[in-house]
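Hi R.,

Here's the chain you asked about this morning:
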Amino acid sequence: MMSKTPLISVIIPIHNCQNYIKECLESLRLQTYKNLEFICINDGSTDGSQALLKSFQAKDERFIILNQARLGQSIAKNKGFQQSKGKYISFIDADDRVSLSLYQKFIKTAAKENFDIYIFNANEYNKESASTFPRQFFTINDWMNHDNENTIHTFADIKNPFVGNMGVCNKIFKKEFLNKIAENGNELFTPNCIFEDIYFHFLCLTNNPSILVNLEPLYYYREPRQDTITKTLSRNVFDIFKITEKLTTLLIKTNYYEKYKYAYFQYLFKEFTGLLIKCPPNLRPSFFNNMRIILSAHERRTLNPDITRNLVGIEIYNDLKKMSGIAFFDKYKDKIKL
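And the predicted structure, written out as tokens:
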């Protein structure tokens, strides 16, 4: 029987977030559910983040500070997970905040149902304009076989796993489930890669978790963000090719590639073209050539031309195959939905 107050480990990677981190940490400190540990990984911050962390630790011993050189979020998350002692694991971005009742509501549900992953929705908020509005990461229409709020889902119930949110912050994981993945020799988050959440998302799904979904928005996602990928893209934009190569291998190994190959092809095309638009101009030609090679290889190797020609957006892909990178960018830079 589950303890009425199991420990939840909350992992927060932090790099130069002094302007926002206090609001994030306050939303954790004031949680109505109290049996929490807050593992704060200071990822080489050079601003006042470390001092703020120490001030929280001084007034609340649940805050644990781990320091590392600037090694990135992946290594920070892996380190936080390795240090965690909780039955459940939660990851939070230091830019954001959470509902004060998030973990209380989770525990209430976990006491009644057995599942590996708990997924919830979010609100987007803008501190500058003092506005908050729904940022639906998913709707019930994204899931098959949903009877009620206590329905336990599987990977097979997701209508299209390549559409929608793939982040970790709107999820709580059973540590036992993540331990089984790690015991198979898998690093949960790919080091030195800025798209680490994508592979982690599918690493979890392909290990056949039981999933409970909650439509309620319990996470508050900040816009504009302190350190968005869009603002910080450099040569790290090529990490998307590294992470999707790993993902392709994973899908083939777990026998999901054939089932989802058309949805996956469309996902790759959309992801690559969106990043092409955001890509630094000096890197754009090389990025374009890489994406064209990868997409063409997927098309030639596995896709039926009679099906491919009817895919949504295929006319844009056809232009990609025959146009130069500059011409493609000029034609679609204002048309691609980011």
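The chain has a mean pLDDT of 92.

Let me know if you need anything else.
M.
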